[in-house]
Amino acid sequence: MPLDPPVPPPIPPPAPDAPAPDAPAPDAPAGDAPPSPAISETQAEHLIHGICFKTGPPRLLGAELEWLVVDAERPGLAVTPERLRAAHAAARALPLHSRVTVEPGGQLELSSAPATSLTDCVDGLQDDLTAVRAALREQGLVLRGLGRDPRLPYRRLLGSPRYDAMEAYFDRTGPAGRAMMCASASVQVCVDAGYEEPGVLGHGRRWRLAHLLGAVLVAAFANSPADEGPYAGWRCSRQGIWDDLDARRTLAPPLDAEPRDGWVRQALDTEVMCVRSYEGEAWDVPRGTTFRDWLRAGDDGQALRAPTAEDLDYHLTTLFPPVRPRGHMELRMIDAQPGDDGWLVPVAVVHALFDDPEAAETAYRVTKALTDSYGAQPAPRNPLWRSAARHGLTDPELRAAAKTCFRAAAEALPRLGATTHVRDTVGAFTERFVLRGRCPGDEPPRLRPEGKEALR
To answer: How do residues 371-415 score in pLDDT, each as one tens digit?
Structure first.
């Protein structure tokens, strides 16, 4: 769930005359340069429409892994800000293939380089994780794969105009915003949008599959159990946080709309979280103003200046749906996973179910039938997604769908060139959890040192 401006995606760069949607958006406009020209509502629609799906043959894969940083000997205690900053500095100093970023609560994120195969993606991340773990171990720290940090109270480590404004915005609706910023961690998998044309590998079918399959992924990889509080008894309390976060910002667009048109409407009709200042002042946090409202008001003496293309790019980085279109598709609903290699299971399974045509057809057929029985409300606020978060694979329909999807993924992985290690790791997860109707969140303890010697 990158809260920082997004990292370079696993897609080829846009043409020179096209907007660069995934270039990091600065926390504030550069220098004292005047604002860019204002844009109209029509221009904004065209910009979003042109960048949300970059179509072509599916060939690239990426992953973003978020981790809690905990004390190796006393994992249940909070790590001081000084130790966290030292750990982050040590990770950033390493010569890695991945990009290292830090989330507001001190969670450490590794974002892979675009990879042309599952093997390249996994090997690059494994090498980087080995180096990062060794650097942190020297400081008595380890990485912990858990979807939600149970340690209280939540403490925001990072201070910036972006995070100050984000916290102020989310505080209006309760504590879920601070929990999301400071205590959540995920495995995000990025796949290409697919072909422009219809078909099993077409972007329309893949967009729909991502949302249909999402509930199965939530249930199978649920790893943020809660013992108390508003999500007591949930296997995936992280999903509950996203459900409670915002009235629209975390919702999927209606799936009956054409994908680009649906995303344009969703983006423009979501509230503006913040307006960046050009004067070094605190950022405005409007109340109840959508980006479309802002465009229509223009520079007519209202409290807000007229929006620019840079403001639109920045607004898009503040939207957190379960599947975010960034040229490619970013699947954001999977909890961080336990163990040294737990993270590679969702990466491999998603890759197989999207990029192998036979597995993709199986996954679509099974999940569409499952979703049709639960109604058309958008994810994550529909009965199926909520059942996945609460019950994991104890839900019999989700368990049956997961078994079929994981079986299809296992059959596809050899066709995709997966290594024996990847296939064995996916097989062990399937045997341990999916076939038994369980998920990682079903297994205590809740917080302990990470590593092969500490697997649950």
So the answer is: 877 777 899 999 999 999 999 999 999 999 999 999 999 999 999
Which two tokens mark 367? Answer: 């999940």
| Amino acid found at 237 | S
Residue type, 60: L
Q: Map residue 94 onto helix, strand or coil.
A: coil
Residue range 311-320, pLDDT digits in tens: 999 999 999 9
Tell me how far CA of residue 398 lies from CA of 200, 213, 220, 312, 370, in angstroms.
Answer: 22, 10, 9, 38, 8
Amino acid at 88: H
143 strand-pairing partners: 69
The CA-CA-CA angle for residues 427, 333, 126, to 5°, reads: 50
DSSP code of residue 129: H
User: Per DSSP, what are the bridge partners of residue 99?
Assistant: 111
Give Cα 324 to chain centroid, integer Å. 8
Instruction: Dump the DSSP string for 407-446.
Output: HHHHHHHHHTT--HHHHHHHHHHHHHTGGGT--GGGSS-S
